[in-house]
Design goal:
Elements lengths: L6 H5 L4 H4 L2 H59 L1
Length: 81
């Protein structure tokens, strides 16, 4: 430890002395365009999934309601005889 920094100082994520690596910064900036495109596609897919889930839930609710009404009518027919 001739430099005066401990192991914890070197691995601290907030230590700017060791985090200012220009090569990794350049890679991060270069990849931002690709990541932005991926985020747009993912958000688009998420919106579609929300719509599909909403429509599916509405169909389920409608089908359940219809089924319960049918059962209720069948019961009333049997008890009315």
């Amino acid at each position: 430890m001739a430099s005066g920094n401990s192991w914890a100082d070197q691995w601290d994520s907030n230590n700017e002395e060791y985090n200012n690596n220009s090569e990794s910064g350049a890679r991060k900036e270069k990849g931002n365009g690709k990541m932005a495109k991926v985020k747009v596609v993912a958000l688009s897919g998420l919106e579609k999934a929300k719509v599909v889930a909403t429509v599916g839930a509405q169909k389920l609710k409608s089908g359940t309601s219809t089924g319960i009404k049918w059962i209720k009518n069948q019961y009333q027919k049997r008890t009315a005889k």
